[in-house]
Amino acid sequence: MRRNHETPAGSLHRLTVDSTALQSNLLGDPGRREVVVYLPHGHDGRGLPLLVDLVGFTAGGPAHVNWRNFGENLPERLDRLIAAEAMPRVVVAFPDCFTRLGGNQYVNSDAMGHWETFLIEEMLPVVEERFGCGGRGRRGVFGKSSGGYGAIVHAMRHADCWAAAACHSGDMAFELCYLPEMPSLLRALAKKEGSIETFVTDFEAGPKWNGKDIHNLMTLAMAATYDPDPEAFCGIRLPVDPETCEVIAERWAAWQRWDPVLLAERHAADLKTLKGLWIDCGKVDQYNLVYGARRLHRKLVAAGVDHVYEEFDDNHSAVDYRMDASLPFLSKALS
Q1: Does any domain span residue 4?
Q2: Is cis: bond before 239, omega within 30 of 0?
Q3: Residue 211 sits in which domain range?
Q4: Which pLDDT score, from 0 to 100, does residue 241 have?
Q5: Is 78 in the same domain as 43?
Q6: Could you tell me where the DSSP H helices lie in the chain?
Q7: pLDDT tens per residue across span 61-86
Q8: What is the pLDDT of residue 5?
Q9: Cα(215)–Cα(24) distance, rounded to whole angstroms?
Q10: CA 308 from centroid of its chain's CA atoms
């Protein structure tokens, strides 16, 4: 049931992308991926800008088009904003980037898969050819949490592809958002005789999945993303000593190379080429992400990178309403 039956509804189309870039991942995940594409009411998509939605950990792109109780899914949100003339019409792609480890950071990893390559070189051409949308200077990427991380890192590393980006509560300042999770992970692994493989396979067996185990799985996914070991189970190696939780300098340095706060120092010139950059975070984000957002904001100001930065009175959870501001911003920048 739609929240508002009077708003003209756009249409959803399901495509399949057979990826070469993802085939060699160490998780055993499939290379065939579904992409749901939203077209605004009464339009075939031709000539419109294209936005790509990168979802947060534990979700997949198609989840954002599912029915929502007491609220809107993302297509309904787009319908409302477009009908109210709060934003120009756009095409939006929702790629399925879910993994065995529960999520994705949308960068290339020998363990998780080459997700940057998939999104840019494989998915975009399929969507743009099918609907005649997007193209150079007409593509934007947005997301929240892990998706926010993916959006800001893609904007930094691939400004030649993406012309605008919105990062909602994205992972950054890794020492604040990831290191505090390590003791919990080590305690969980100790119950499995220190075996990452046993923890993962027992988790997969279910039949229920509690929040602590999901957070621990997320930490393992980050390890497989930022510093994979091709010889380890699912490519996972930790950046801390399993007995003392002391940071292993070489391993942690490999993680930090992917921290947006540090990446910004090398990619300020790339960010200056964007038509629009949006960054926001809740003031009481329970993963400490607001402190990283503030650091990134300061660096962008110092480097002269034009962007919108906002903090709002909320935490990390259920903040999709922030897209009422970012989606019009992106669509106007690209139009």
Answers
A1: no
A2: no
A3: 176-256
A4: 98
A5: yes
A6: 74-83, 115-117, 124-131, 146-157, 174-177, 182-190, 196-205, 211-226, 249-256, 260-271, 289-303, 323-334
A7: 999 999 999 899 999 999 999 999 99
A8: 76
A9: 26
A10: 19
Tokens of 27: 């998780």
Verify that 123 and 266 share a domain, yes or no. yes
* Domain edge (last residue) among 211, 237, 256: 256
- How far lies 205's CA from each of 140, 209, 214, in Å? 38, 9, 13
Tokens 């979802």 correspond to what residue? 55
Residue 233 to residue 287: CA distance in whole angstroms: 27
The Cα 154–Cα 159 span in angstroms is 7
Q: What distance in Å separates the CA atoms of residue 304 and residue 182, rounded to the nearest whole number?
A: 36
What is the radius of gyration, based on Cα positions, of the chain? 19
Is residue 2 situated within a structural domain? no
Q: Model pTM?
A: 0.97
Please indicate, yes or no, whether residues 104 and 92 belong to a single structural domain of this protein.
Answer: yes
User: Quick one: 167 and 209 in the same domain?
Assistant: no
Write the DSSP assignment of 77-96 as a string of letters.
HHHHHHHTTSS---EEEEE-
Please tell me the total number of residues recorded for the chain in this structure. 335
Same structural domain, 188 and 227 = yes
Say how many Å lie between the first and final Cα of the chain, rounded.
Answer: 31
Do both 113 and 237 map to the same domain? no
How many separate domains does the chain show?
A: 2
Q: Identify the pLDDT of residue 6.
A: 83
Instruction: Check whether residue 113 and residue 133 sit in a common domain.
Output: yes
In the block, residue with structure tokens 């706060």: 261
Residues 197 and 209 in one domain: yes
CA distance 17 to 103: 19
Low-confidence ranges of the chain (pLDDT < 70): 1-2
> Domain end: 256, 276, 297, which one?
256
Please choose, from the candidates 279, 169, 167, 149, the residue with its C-alpha nearest in 3D space to the C-alpha of residue 222: 149
The DSSP bridge partners found for residue 89 are: none
Is residue 277 helix, strand or coil?
A: strand
